[in-house]
Prior knowledge:
- The chain is of the alpha+beta class.
- It has 3 domains: 4-69, Uridine Diphospho-n-acetylenolpyruvylglucosamine Reductase, domain 2; 74-186, Uridine Diphospho-n-acetylenolpyruvylglucosamine Reductase, domain 3 (2-Layer Sandwich), CATH 3.30.465; 234-343, Uridine Diphospho-n-acetylenolpyruvylglucosamine Reductase, domain 1.
- It has helices at 30-38, 94-104, 196-204, 212-226, 247-256, 280-286, 315-333; strands at residues 3-8, 20-27, 47-50, 56-57, 62-69, 74-79, 83-89, 128-129, 132-133, 138-145, 150-155, 176-186, 234-238, 243-246, 275-278, 293-294, 297-299, 306-309, 342-343.
- Strands 6-7-12-10-11 form a 5-stranded antiparallel β-sheet, with helices on one face. Strands 1-2-5-3 form a 4-stranded mixed β-sheet, with helices on one face. A 4-stranded antiparallel β-sheet has the order 13-18-17-16, with helices on one face.
- A hairpin with a 2-residue loop joins strand 16 (293-294) and strand 17 (297-299).
- The chain binds uridine-diphosphate-2(N-acetylglucosaminyl) butyric acid.
Amino acid sequence: MEIKKNFDLKKYNTFGVEAKAGFFAEINSEQDLIELLNLPEFKENEKLFLGGGSNVLFTKDFDGIVILNKLKGIEIIKESEDFVLVKSMGGEWWKDLVNFAVERGYWGIENLSLVPGTVGATPVQNIGAYGVELKDTLEQVEAYEIKTVSKKIFTNKECEFGYRDSVFKNKLKGQYFISAVVLRLSKKESKNIRYKALQEYLDKNKIEIKNVKDISNAVAEIRRSKLPDPKVLGNAGSFFKNVFVDFKKLEELKKKFPDMPYFEEPADAKAMAGEVKIPAGWLIEKCDWKGKRVGNVGVHEKQALVLVNYGRATGEEIKNLSERIIDSVYQKFGLKLTPEINLI
Ligand code: EPU
């Protein structure tokens, strides 16, 4: 395994911003990882695990060691009449895992079609789209503890999933390298088309869901129509999380802003009990940011939650724009937006 010095990360983050890593290593096998974590010279170095770089913004150089997960392999490890357990190594692209399932007619992750990034990153923020979250199918996570260089299995419960949240973002932040995930997928039809934008798309195009591929295709179409392709325009998907408020706060807001949309679709039924989701995209749009460009950066014209790099932006510029947006939403609505992406 080669360890590179002073490594350019521009190609390793979908915002496409310039940043250097003090050191950089690619992990192609679990043996590589064990070797690297045992190297005495890196014991004290700060470590950053990277997959597709689609949920991170580098605002400065990273002095420590960036460790790129390239562990490959997808296999069925258990199967019954009703379900399969699929194990995927963390360095696989998430979209390839979705295709693996969709092609075989396994239900559960088709609503998460085209979510960018690698499998190993998905539990960290409990990826979610079109009414489905990773936590709905996740059986277990396999991860290496950095300190002891030993493998641990996390059950779904132990991952402490919430809306775009998990134990790996909180208590255990930076302490584990996710080597694999195991998903429980259904062989029996179990479609979820409750998400409003998905339902509307299916109705409008008169699409009748006959198989898992129909949902996957519909989701892919909606995403393509709204979300910019990072190969064309640097971005990291939703920059902010949606906002959850209780009914009391909702009533106050509705008095002042009667047209404010809200959704009762708690991502985590328990944690979010009694709360409704206010789309951050709407709040940003109402502050007149949608489609606005400021120098090298801007707010996407079709989805206000997405910040874009028009070509030469620095991470600092993108961060500054995000802070201006947070300020204006706070001034107008008294609601505090929080970034969904990981700021380095
Ligand atoms: N909206 C606006 N203006 C906008 C964008 C959204 O008014 O510019 C309002 C509309 O009322 C719309 C509602 O927001 O009906 C919901 O919009 P959308 O379905 O596009 O979803 P979202 O809440 O903006 C979330 C996820 C996306 C995911 C979609 C679809 C977060 C932070 N984002 O966005 O995830 O694809 O739902 O499920 O939860 C990502 O995480 O990178 C990401 C793209």
